[in-house]
Write a structure and sequence with these properties.
The protein is an all-alpha fold. It has five helices and two strands; from the N terminus they run ββααααα. It has a two-stranded antiparallel ribbon with strand order 1-2.
């Protein structure tokens, strides 16, 4: 993938992230920090965010590098997306099973799935990046 590409309008577009997996991890940490702030604000009012809300917020904040990779890739990218989604689902299920096996008495029932998702998202971006750079 080139450093600079012409977007068709004559402007040169540079990739926002040089290392998409590291950027995904950093953006996940930012999403978790935002979720932590929401929890701190809601805690005095006896409201804590649900684990699915935390996963959605973190995922939406961390999806930028994968979208940039997808947009910058050449047209045959379906296989890369399917491989990335399969990797994401497999790693999420394996990590969720490991977390619930290691910590069987978690207070919140969706924590194992959330941890699996947070670990699987960078893996999915890594698989997407590998397949897109291999094809291109």
């Amino acid at each position: 993938m080139a450093d600079e590409t012409d977007s068709g309008s004559g402007s040169i577009r540079r990739p926002a992230w040089d290392h998409p997996v590291m950027a995904t991890v950093a953006l996940e940490l930012v999403g978790l920090a935002v979720s932590g702030l929401v929890a701190l604000v809601g805690w005095p009012f006896a409201w804590l965010p649900d684990t699915s809300l935390v996963g959605l917020l973190t995922g939406l904040m961390a999806i930028g590098p994968a979208a940039e990779l997808y947009r910058g890739a050449s047209p045959p990218r379906r296989f890369a997306v399917v491989a990335a989604l399969l990797a994401l689902a497999t790693v999420r299920l394996l990590v969720a099973a490991a977390v619930s096996r290691i910590f069987p008495t978690l207070a919140e029932p969706g924590v194992d799935s959330l941890v699996g998702y947070l670990v699987a998202l960078p893996v999915g971006v890594a698989v997407l990046a590998w397949f897109l750079t291999r094809a291109g």
